[in-house]
Amino acid sequence: MSLTALQNALPTYAGDLRKNLDQLSRETLLSDQQKWGCFLACAFASGVPTVAKAVRAETEPRLTPEAKSGAMAAAAIMGMNTVYYGSINLLANHDYRGAPVNLSMAALVNPPIEKIDFELWALAVSAMSNCGACLNSHEAELHKRGVTLERVQAALRIAATVNAIAVVLRGEAAMAA
Fold it and tell me: Where are the domains of the chain?
């Protein structure tokens, strides 16, 4: 399956998503590795097989094995961190914020690819989970490294569109069941 097939799998009412997917596939604010890694991390994080397979097929010739591994590592680590840090920041008891985390997060410290790329992918997956703590942490790291607001927004647009496509396909599958 390809992005074109994914677009064609969307119902008529999701025409905006089809258009956004097309525009984002031609995004030029991000490097190709940043863009396609963002797509892959978000598709993997969506957990929707149709989305994951289409994006994986599209990124197969576009990403190195290290970049593919990095994108999936970003999705994996953020799957853990968005729950942990999101919960800590929602709790009224702020004592947890100063307590030791005691979770391995080596992928964040020593990613298998460029730090900026990994941070963009982690930010995008954080957006899909709506974790304010993680979003702010990754945005601050990107800002320290000179990444522009426009590039951060590009990653967020990819996350928003991939997430919305996953919502539509899950909803359609639920309605058909």
Answer: 3-176
Distance CA 124, CA 14 (A): 21
Task: Return the CATH fold of 3-176.
Answer: AhpD-like (1.20.1290)
Which residue, among 145, 144, 146, 147, has the nearest Cα to 156 in the 3D structure? 147
Quote the pTM value. 0.94
CB atoms near residue 7 (< 10 Å): 19
Residue pLDDT, tens place only, 53-108 = 999 999 999 999 999 999 999 999 999 999 999 999 999 999 999 898 988 888 88
Residues involved in catalysis: 131, 134
Residue of 58, 59, 80 whose CA lies nearest to 69: 59
CA distance 30 to 36: 9
Cα angle value 71/48/133 (rounded, 5°): 55
